[in-house]
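Dear colleague,

Thank you for sharing your sequence with our group. We've completed the structure prediction you requested, and as agreed, I am returning the results in plain text so they can be pasted directly into your records. Please verify that the sequence below matches your submission; if there's any discrepancy, let me know and we will rerun it promptly.
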Amino acid sequence: MDNNVLFAFSLTLIAGLATGLGSAIAFFAKKTNTSFLSFSLGLSAGVMIYISFVEMLPNAQDLLMGVYGETTGKWITIASFFGGILLIGLIDFLIPSTENPHEARKLEDMNPEEKKKSSLMRMGILTAVAITIHNFPEGIATFISALEDPQIGISVAFAVAIHNIPEGIAVSVPIYYATNSRRKAFTYSFLSGLSEPLGAIIGYFLIMYFFSIDIMGIVFGIVAGIMVFISLDELLPAAHRYGKHHTSIIGLILGMLIMAISLLLF
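Please find the predicted C-alpha cells below.
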C-alpha cells in the first residue's frame, strides 16, 4: 500500500509541475505551435473521456451495486458522476471568465504593449489563483486513479500534464512582461501546479480515514465526472480556439484508441 501511495503521489506531482514546463516553453518559444498544441489537447481529452466512461464509471457502478443492490447502486453512480460535474462546474463558474486560465492565448499575441504592467501583473496573479483552484480536484482525480490502477493512473497523469502546459504559459507570460523577471514568472507558474499534489494529500486522508467500498465507488463516480467536464469544457474548446478543429479531433480519437489498446494489453 505504501509503495502504491508513493507512486500515485509521484504521478500527481509530475502532472502538477507540468505548469512549470509550460512556463519554460514560453521563455524559449517565439511562436505557438498551434497544430501540436491542438493535437495534444485533443489527445488529452480522448484519454480522459475514454477512461471515465470505460473504466472509472463502470468500476464505480460495480462497487455501489455490490453494496446497495442493482437499482440503488446505479442511481448513486449517476448521482456521483453528475455530482463531480457539478463540483468542477461550480469551481469554474466562481472564477471570473476574463481571467479563466483555459482561455487560449498565443505566445506571439502577448506582448508588453497590450496592457499596462499593473494590469498584466493582476492578470497573471489571478490566472495563477484560478489554475490553483482548478488543479485541486484534478490532483484528487489523478491520485485516486493511480491508486486504483497504476496503468490508468499513468494515462490520467499524462493527460493532466498535457493539459497543464498551456496553463503554465498563461500564468508566466503576463507576469514576465509585468516584472521583466523570468524567475518570478516561473515561480508563480510552478507554485500554481502544486495544488495538484495537495489534492493528492487530501485524497489520501479521505481514503485512509473514510475508506469503505461505497465511498470508493462514489469517489470513482465523482472523478469520472470531473474528468469528463474538464475534457468537454476546457480541453476541446481550447483546442478549437487554436483554430485546428480536425487536428484536435484526430488527437481525441487517437487518445481513445491508445487507451483502448493499452487497457486490453495491460
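Summary note from our side: Confidence is low (pLDDT under 50) at residues 98-102.

Kind regards,
the structure core
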